[in-house]
Design brief:
Number of domains of chain A: 4
Strand content of chain A: 15-25%
Bound molecules: thiamine diphosphate, iron/sulfur cluster, magnesium ion
CATH topology of chain B: Rossmann fold
Number of helices of chain A: 21
CATH topology of the largest domain in chain A: FAD/NAD(P)-binding domain
Strand order of the largest sheet of chain B: 3-1-4-5-7-6-8-9
Strand order of the largest sheet of chain A: 5-4-3-6-20-19-18
Radius of gyration of chain A: 29 Å
Number of strands of chain A: 23
Shape of chain A: globular
CATH class of the largest domain in chain A: Alpha Beta
Oligomer: heterodimer
Structural class of chain B: alpha/beta
Number of domains of chain B: 1
Distance between the termini of chain B: 35 Å
Strand content of chain B: 15-25%
Largest sheet of chain A: 7 strands, mixed
Number of helices of chain B: 11
Radius of gyration of chain B: 18 Å
Order of helices and strands of chain B: HEHEEHEHHEHEHEHHEEHH
CATH architecture of the largest domain in chain A: 3-Layer(bba) Sandwich
Largest interface: A-B, 36 and 39 residues
Number of strands of chain B: 9
Shape of chain B: globular
Distance between the termini of chain A: 65 Å
Chain lengths: 585, 293
């Protein structure tokens, strides 16, 4: 029998003609993943609140200018901080638990140097003019920082500086081998280019200050602790005894040159170390005497190590008793101390040991026993003084009937006195004043609390201005929350440094430049804790094709019509930028 | 991770695979690489269901559903038909479970590759008959619980080494792959597509339901299988040239076992014994790859 032709051409096979997309499998879900960025431990540890995870991510992408601008949103002095900050960020880096911390400070410095070399102009979002003028007394890191942030917030700023050049302690107190003049000046020039006016050689007296309270809308007092405190022992003000801070200032000012022979330096802070290392570079020998143990020294450990490398002698557990003039210099008498238990602050508690006094003959003795305000009116008012006093973590705000509000900041108000804390203080002052003008003094605390990084105390301008960082959860990402399977062991960069011999005769910077290639590789070690770097793992591993991406691949959404809530994306996110929660019915 | 072609999507949402199913991840990666000019032969397995009930399909390529034991034979026929029509461009791919490959489909597979039929055979391995309720297969590993190896009768036989069985046929290309290593997987699928003759890929695909693991752990456990040397990633060309593709961190096998409900009953001694087996197999592989004398 013949098969009908029509049938010959028909394929007897059921053929599908619809997709499965009409099944909304999202109804199965009882757990709900979502994108939620979190806070990196480094960023939370940075006193200036820098967005470090993001900065390193941008460096990895070669976006150096954007990375630098991201720093500038939170810190106007990356070239300074990349060199002299004690980088608490690195001490909290999650990568430490994997191999070694990311060299965050080297990368910060790299960005600042690259920007200075290329004369890059930052594009920062300046707020509309606020129509107010602020006077800032002192062009140190606190004053520069206050001016920088006030400028971004739309204020007109005038800085008054007594010294012939701006920089404060960073210029006059920190030796050039740690912070070269050019690096500092480049930063100051950029701050001025942004619109901040700096009037150098203008000392503000108490009388002028009172005048300014009538002519400006607010004042920031950041004139620092300049008066080196003298020791309270016989002979402390005698011949052959010098004060460390003014010595450093004279060296930076080119007033002093050779310091031959043996010098003794009394103290355990950064000033003592800086003085000793400077003496080595000026052809002398330096012996640091400190009444506690080496591990109790307030100086940054790395600085102490470098000092010893360079030949500075360190004698611990020796308390100065008296200084006597002697032929060719002086004799320092010291009481040996011993440790019994612990002080409240965790340092060893010391008492005199049952040992004979020790004598050290030296050509001169430097004291570095801390510093105080240069004039009593620089002291921030205690609460209970006339007017309203608001004591914040890094500033004291005073409002009274004598004129415009005053913020006491920098070393005047900060508990820890160093460059980065001074920058934090300037930022806090700027934000506090902005809140004060917009919402009144009563809102200051609350508004500042809403823009802390993680759990504070560091503040973020980006968060204050309502930028994307505001969306981040304050939760600080732990190492356990990193999916370490996605990272390879990679040694930390080896910071190229001057040879010890080269350091003896020069004030050249010790830490040498790193290349762009090295910087990108080092930034590539960063986990980018808590932030999305577009790795696409969520998209790739989704069994339900439920991750939708924007055309440029930078933005992702979860299609909850289909997401079954397996949670794979959250586990496979290497950096905890996603969260899995119970589905609410 | 930047993978070219990874933007192509030939699988649809709305399929009924379990949450976290590794077999669906494997399919997504494979199809992204294979592209539209692919015909897929699908013997009975979980994927017969995931591919959708008539008239739906979750795959945007032609699929032929076929009997459990016939993957190799059906693919041979599809290839022959395409050749008769002069279509050399379309790739024929069998997509079968471990049951359909190691066990009931082995005869058809062995016959086809002995003839060096020109297709890719991909076995997604979830180490049991999952679609019918977690019965053991010859791919189920030593020590595992399944519904047919339950209680004290957990499986006390080793997993069949399917790649070696295929290598013994001297086929042009045989390789292992794993859903936790997309780059490696994609490269191997591409290489298979560019090779002529019989090609075999053995893809590790975790199964949250059958392994008693949380859905979100499916890729992490898959990665662990490689890092412990339980499932090494390697490829063999022409039945002779071995290359190991991923250098493992060599975690202890306990790290892998302790994450999974199906191994919960194992004692420390059992784990030591399993570690011994894994070490032995790994040494053997290193020798084949010429990395050990
Ligand atoms: C001849 C035959 N016997 C039994 C079955 C029932 N059956 C369908 S799928 C399946 C198990 C498939 O196991 P596997 O190949 O490992 O795929 P999985 O379901 O695990 O993905 C069985 C036994 C069948 N379809 N045909
Ligand atoms: S039983 Fe296993 S393989 Fe099958 S759909 Fe569920 S998770 Fe996937
Ligand atoms: Mg199976």
């Amino acid at each position: 029998m013949e098969t009908p032709t029509a049938l010959q051409n028909v394929l007897y096979m059921p053929r599908t003609f619809a997709t499965t997309e009409s099944n909304k499998t999202g109804a199965w879900r009882f757990l709900r993943p979502r994108y939620e960025e979190k806070t990196s431990p480094c960023g939370a540890a940075c006193p200036a609140g820098e967005d470090i995870a993001r900065i390193e991510m941008l460096i990895t992408q070669g976006a150096f200018k954007e990375a630098w601008e991201t720093i500038l949103m939170e810190n106007p002095l990356p070239g300074v901080c990349g060199r002299v900050c004690y980088h608490p960020c690195e001490g909290r880096c999650n990568r430490r638990e994997f191999d070694a911390a990311v060299a965050i400070h080297s990368l910060e410095r790299f960005l600042a140097d690259a920007a200075a070399r290329n004369e890059t102009k930052p594009a920062l979002p300046r707020q509309p003019a606020a129509g107010r003028r602020i006077a800032i007394i002192g062009a140190g890191p606190a004053g520069l920082s206050a001016a920088w942030f006030l400028n971004i917030l739309g204020y007109e700023t005038d800085i008054f500086e007594a010294m012939p050049a701006a920089g404060g302690m960073t210029r006059w107190g920190i030796p050039a081998y740690r912070l070269p003049e050019a690096a500092l000046s480049a930063e100051i020039a950029r701050i001025e280019a942004q619109g901040v006016r700096i009037h150098t050689g203008e000392t503000v007296t108490a009388a002028r200050f009172e005048e300014m309270r009538k002519s400006y809308d607010a004042l920031f007092l950041g004139c620092g602790h300049w008066r080196g405190l003298s020791l309270d022992i016989p002979g402390a003000t005698g011949v052959g005894v010098e004060e460390g801070l003014s010595f450093l200032r004279d060296i930076r000012g080119g007033v002093r040159r050779d310091i031959p022979g043996v010098s003794a330096v009394i103290g355990g802070g950064n000033t003592a170390i800086d003085v000793a290392r400077t003496i080595i570079r000026r052809g002398g020998r330096a012996i640091i005497v400190y009444r506690r143990r080496r591990e109790d020294m307030p100086a940054f450990a790395e600085e102490t190590r470098s000092a010893q490398e360079e030949g500075v002698e360190l004698r611990e557990l020796l308390a100065p008793v008296r200084i006597d003039a002697a032929a060719g210099g002086c004799v320092l008498t010291l009481q040996p101390m011993t440790v019994v238990g612990q002080d409240q602050d965790g340092r060893g508690k010391i008492v005199p040991a049952a040992a004979a006094p020790v004598r050290i003959a030296a050509q001169r003795v430097f004291t570095a026993a801390g510093a105080g305000t240069a004039a009593p009116w620089h002291e921030p008012p205690a609460s209970g003084a006339s007017g309203a006093v608001l004591a914040l973590s890094h500033c004291v705000l005073l409002q009274d009937d004598r004129g415009a509000p005053v913020v006491y900041g920098g070393d005047l108000a900060a508990r820890d006195k160093n460059v980065t804390q001074a920058i934090a203080s300037g930022k806090q002052a700027a934000l506090a004043l902005d809140v004060l003008f917009r919402h009144g003094v009563g809102s200051v605390r609350e508004r500042l609390a809403s823009c802390v990084v993680g759990h504070g105390p560091a503040l973020s301008l980006e968060i204050y201005l309502g930028g994307p960082r505001r969306e981040r959860n304050a939760h600080i990402v732990t190492y356990e929350e990193i999916n370490a399977d996605y990272f390879q062991y990679e040694p930390r960069l080896v910071q190229p440094r001057l040879l010890i011999e080269e350091r003896h005769s020069s004030f050249d910077e010790i830490e040498l430049k790193i290349s762009a290639h090295t910087a990108m590789r080092e930034a590539g070690r960063c986990f980018h804790c808590g932030i999305c770097n577009n790795c696409d793992n969520c998209y790739l591993f989704c069994p339900d094709v439920a991750i939708l991406r924007a055309r440029d691949m930078t933005d992702r959404h979860i299609d909850y019509d289909y997401c079954k809530g397996c949670g794979l994306c959250v586990v496979e996110c290497p950096r905890n930028a996603m969260t899995l929660e119970e589905e609410t019915p | 991770m930047q993978l070219e072609a990874m933007d192509r999507e030939l699988m649809c949402s709305g399929h009924v695979g379990c949450p976290g199913c590794g077999a669906t991840i494997a399919m997504r990666f494979a199809l992204k690489t294979l592209g539209e000019k692919t015909i897929m032969v699908l013997p009975a397995c979980c994927w017969s269901v995931i591919a959708g009930p008539f008239p739906q399909s979750s795959l945007k390529i032609p699929v032929i559903h076929t009997a459990f034991e016939t993957g190799g034979a059906t693919a041979s026929g599809v290839r022959a038909a395409l050749d008769m029509r002069g279509d050399e461009e379309t790739t024929v791919v069998v997509w079968a479970g471990d049951g359909g490959t190691f066990d009931i489909g082995f005869q058809a597979l062995s016959g086809a590759v002995e003839r060096n039929e020109n297709f890719i055979y991909i076995c997604y391995d979830n180490e049991a008959y999952m679609n019918t309720g977690i019965q053991r297969s010859s791919s189920t590993p030593y020590g595992a619980w399944t519904t047919t190896t339950s209680g004290s009768d957990w499986k006390k036989l080793r997993k069949k080494n399917i790649v070696e069985a295929l290598v013994a046929h001297r086929i042009p290309y045989a390789a292992t792959a794993n859903i936790a290593y997309p780059e490696d997987l994609v490269r191997k699928v591409r290489k298979a597509r560019e090779t002529k003759g019989s090609r075999f890929l053995h893809i590790y695909a975790s199964c949250p339901t059958g392994w008693r693991i949380p859905a979100e752990m499916s890729v992490r456990i898959a990665r662990m299988a490689v890092q412990t040397n339980i499932f090494p990633l390697y490829e063999v060309e022409n039945g002779i040239d071995y290359t190991i593709n991923v250098k493992p961190r060599e975690y202890l096998v306990r790290e892998y076992f302790k994450l999974q409900g199906r191994f919960r009953h194992l004692s420390e001694e059992d784990l030591d014994q399993i570690q011994g087996m894994v070490n032995e197999d790994w040494e053997r592989l290193l020798r084949k790859a010429g990395e050990r004398a």
